[in-house]
């Protein structure tokens, strides 16, 4: 699976497999994280979990999973495939050998480039996922109530004007394709990239704090530098890297989630969203969902890296 120029397709395939496994593991907590960050009046993480379960049943935690399962697999395929090939290209350019271990600066450069590439594909995916996660009859009712009480400093989730016509059925979008179509009709192509600026602020440093801790920890846990890392080491390093990356990315992730949930354009942009959120709810709002991100980041990333590495070993016969 390698071209004459050293480009490897197996990294993309392994990333696709890892992405699918991580979605199944992490989507329930991702739903909780999205609800907390969008500002629906939940007191804390436990209150959010119990409210969703009592009002909407356990299946609500998997709301909108079909689209991430189909799309984030492709997204992770691009992220891991691009990072691995970028890393080899940098090593080949600097050291004359693509297999030469990269320095911290090399890994940072490859991670930064990966973060930029990820936004182009990931912004529409995240937008549709969040819109699907946010739509419920209960939330529509609460949204109307909270909008009338903006003095309380609680952000309502703004939904498209078409929400009123479908509120009786408790659904705004019939599915991912209908969601995309509705966004294109009401907001245009630019609507699919709402929150992309905040996503750049999240993903560029976020991927550096994702791949670097993983690679450092894997090397530290490797008993012999010439040996392959043990699956338990991969799982642990991947989990720690995921928690570190997601916790540090939480402020930008909060802004991104609010912009993407705001179909009626209450926020004019990243700066306005930051200022409005700060003035209404204080600095603590930017760390809303941090605990969920820390918990969610571990199993998702541990599963992602382990499945990715094991898939590569299978493909390469190691």
From TrEMBL:
One of its GO terms (molecular function) is transmembrane transporter activity. It is found in: Mitochondrion inner membrane. SUPFAM superfamilies: Mitochondrial carrier. Pfam families: Mito_carr (PF00153). Its main location: mitochondrion. The chain crosses the membrane at residues 60-83, 103-125. GO terms for cellular component: mitochondrial inner membrane. It is a multi-pass membrane protein. Solcar repeats lie at residues 6-89, 102-220, 229-314. Keywords: Membrane, Mitochondrion, Mitochondrion inner membrane, Repeat, Transmembrane, Transmembrane helix, Transport. The keyword Transport applies. Belongs to the mitochondrial carrier (TC 2.A.29) family. This is Solute carrier family 25 member 48. It comes from Knipowitschia caucasica (Caucasian dwarf goby). The lineage of its organism: Eukaryota, Metazoa, Chordata, Craniata, Vertebrata.
């Amino acid at each position: 699976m390698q071209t004459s120029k050293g480009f490897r397709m197996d990294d993309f395939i392994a990333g696709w497999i890892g992405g699918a496994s991580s979605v199944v593991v992490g989507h329930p907590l991702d739903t909780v994280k999205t609800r907390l960050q969008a500002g629906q009046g939940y007191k804390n993480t436990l209150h959010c979990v119990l409210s969703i379960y009592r009002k909407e049943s356990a299946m609500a935690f998997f709301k909108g999973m079909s689209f991430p399962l189909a799309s984030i697999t492709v997204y992770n395929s691009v992220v891991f495939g691009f990072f691995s090939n970028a890393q080899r290209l940098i090593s080949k350019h600097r050291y004359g050998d693509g297999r030469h271990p990269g320095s911290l600066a090399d890994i940072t450069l490859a991670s930064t480039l990966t973060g930029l590439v990820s936004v182009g594909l990931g912004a529409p995916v995240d937008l549709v996922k969040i819109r699907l996660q946010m739509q419920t009859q209960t939330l529509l009712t609460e949204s109307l109530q909270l909008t009338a009480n903006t003095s309380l400093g609680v952000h309502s989730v703004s939904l498209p004007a078409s929400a009123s016509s479908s509120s009786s059925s408790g659904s705004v979008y019939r599915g991912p394709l209908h969601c995309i179509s509705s966004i294109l009709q009401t907001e245009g192509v630019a609507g699919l990239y709402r929150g992309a600026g905040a996503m750049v602020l999240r993903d560029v440093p976020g991927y550096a704090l994702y791949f670097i801790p993983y690679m450092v920890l894997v090397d530290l846990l490797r008993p012999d530098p010439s040996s392959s890392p043990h699956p338990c080491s991969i799982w642990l390093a991947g989990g720690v890297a995921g928690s570190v990356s997601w916790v540090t990315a939480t402020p930008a992730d909060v802004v991104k989630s609010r912009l993407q949930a705001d179909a009626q354009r209450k926020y004019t942009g990243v700066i306005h969203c930051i200022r409005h959120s700060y003035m209404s709810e204080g600095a603590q709002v930017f760390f809303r969902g941090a605990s969920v991100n820390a918990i969610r980041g571990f199993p998702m990333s541990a599963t992602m890296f382990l499945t990715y590495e094991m898939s590569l070993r299978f493909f390469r016969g190691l």
